[in-house]
Amino acid sequence: MKKHIFTLAFLLGVVCTAHSKPKQISNSKAISPDLIGVFFEDINYAADGGLYAELIQNRSFEYNPTDHSGWGSFTAWEYITQGYGYGALSVETTSPVHPNNPHYAVLKIEEAGQEGIGLKNSGFDGISVKAGQKYDFSVFIAQPDGSSMPIQVKLVNKKGETLGEATFTTNSKDWKKYTATITVAQSQDSASLVLLAKAKGKIAIDMVSLFPQNTFKNRVNGLRADLAQTIADLKPKFMRFPGGCLVHGDGLGNMYRWKNTIGPVEQRVAQKNIWNYHQTAGLGYFEYFQFCEDMGAKPLPVVPAAVSCQNSGGTWRIGGTGQKGIQLTEMPEYIQEVLDLIEWANGPVTSTWGAKRAAAGHPKPFHLEYVGIGNEDKITPEFKERFKLIYDVVKAKHPEITVIGTVGPAPEGEDFEQGWKFANKENVPMVDEHYYMKPEWFLANQKRYDAYDRSKSKVYLGEYASWGNSLFNAIAEAAYMTSLERNGDVVRLSSYAPLLAKAGHTQWNPDMIYFNNSTIYLTANYYVQQLFSTNEGDVYHSNVVTPAINKADTALAFSCVRNSKTGDVIIKLVNSAKVEKAFKVNLSQFKGIGTKATVSILTGEADAKNSFETPDKVKPVTSDFKAARNFTYTVQPMSLTVISVKAKK
Ligand code: AHR
Description:
Blueprint: E1 28-30, E2 38-39, E3 77-81, E4 86-92, E5 104-111, E6 117-121, E7 127-129, E8 134-142, E9 150-156, E10 162-169, E11 176-183, E12 188-197, E13 201-212, H1 225-232, E14 238-241, H2 245-248, E15 271-273, E16 277-279, H3 285-295, E17 298-303, H4 331-346, H5 352-359, E18 370-373, H6 381-397, E19 402-406, H7 414-426, E20 430-437, H8 439-444, E21 458-466, H9 471-486, E22 491-496, E23 500-502, E24 513-515, E25 520-522, H10 524-533, E26 539-541, E27 545-547, E28 556-562, E29 569-575, E30 581-586, E31 593-603, E32 621-626, E33 630-635, E34 639-647
Parallel strand pairs: 2-14, 14-17, 17-18, 18-19, 19-20, 20-21, 21-22, 23-24
Antiparallel strand pairs: 1-26, 3-6, 4-5, 5-13, 6-12, 7-12, 8-11, 8-13, 9-10, 9-12, 15-16, 24-25, 26-28, 27-30, 28-29, 29-34, 30-33, 31-32, 31-34
The structure holds alpha-L-arabinofuranose.
The site of alpha-L-arabinofuranose has 13 residues, from loops.
């Protein structure tokens, strides 16, 4: 275990407010302005079928049984003949749209009948469409005999009634992209998309796609607007992606390789998702970086440390064949891939990879500051050797990038200790800690970071959650988050995990945001994250709040931060007891604030939870509040209270 030296942290900071000249205030210190972010991983159908707004499942016929037992090229598809037509359907690979996307459907129409024959896609548990909204349809079709084919595409309800349609005629022997807009007449949660060929002949079909025009920020190949908005509403300071275990993958061949996820979607490499489904890579690195920018969050990509998951072939953290490393002879190429990512994100348009970013529509750099290397890897000699090879080159070539190392999947234990020892030896600037624990653990461990050695690696608490979505779980997390703020000089970044979960496709519970195709509900844990992230400060003050009766009351936690941009002073009071408690607040040290304040309170029964049926059972309520230089504030049982005292304008 690394030795934590007791900190003199409260004596460290120089404080400056927007309303007064920089000034030394005792018992205060500068803390991370990026403390609270989000961690996005494609788990629980978070990407395909979730945040990624594509409505067609298995659009490129690439599903196969390694993704999920029983899956194949026609999963989510149905062959349909209507009006007495007949023909044949097959999957082929001889002349694909692109070698990265090998499978496509071939439809032979022997007799078109009255309505044509074709394919029907049921989306991800049905396609949810809204009356009056427009949907962008696209498909790649080739017609080897060179003739033309009239095509009808329509959205239909369960009874087969048309909700909206479009028609076009193909005119190319070679693969060509056809597009159409479908306006929907009637809202429907379980529509299907039907593509019908209306004449005798043969066509090859690939990349059948349907997007709502209303994506987040109206981006093409964009994100589901309502889900993306709930994430943006957290005002995250950064977003880590694409995982999690997804990063190091189920065997070396399944590692997440960022270059496979950029460029035209029909040229990206789809692959098995380690969480037992399929990744189209339609939500790829460009879309992740763009989403970060659209939210005002810093991008935090995590690349594999050139080793696969130690549990490859097993289930999460259990069994498996053990970690495998990329051959050392292949490491120079792999290291170049990491350097290319930095160039792709930050390089000028004249650079090789900066030019690719520009070609995708983003000539300006993405301002990448952080790169994670590895995720919860077993700290073996193979891991250390590969990590060091990557890290040394990135450090030398890009001293402006903060590299984040990894220290295993738990708050203690062998990988944690070995990971820290290694990070300290190599002077890795920051390490990624992960832990999922009982709420009682979070309440009992609030002093964890008080004792961390400030001269060693900083901490990114990259994954944490208490096991549950009840208010008590969320309050335990809130108490812990006051300790993250108090230690915001050493804990620089933190993110709850996992972020998203689709009902019926959940590999992991609890999660922060639950959704189905049309509805979202936010958990108590979400509201705690939001109350902290929208009330962040960059200076911590230790001598403002005290419990009114018993200073050592373990049911209470609190923090006070100041936002030096706005001048606002923000107090967070947490009570995990089932009775009211009181705090004393002394604001007399602050210049430039008045009495105008708001108070937000999250409270309820300890076991209260939100659900699709009762989405608002646990929700914060905000009202105006009149602060004073000194006041006593009584907090409700099982509550988080955030008082934001406004700076004088
Ligand atoms: O957040 C879910 C999983 O938990 C992540 O993929 C992994 O890093 C951790 O074990």
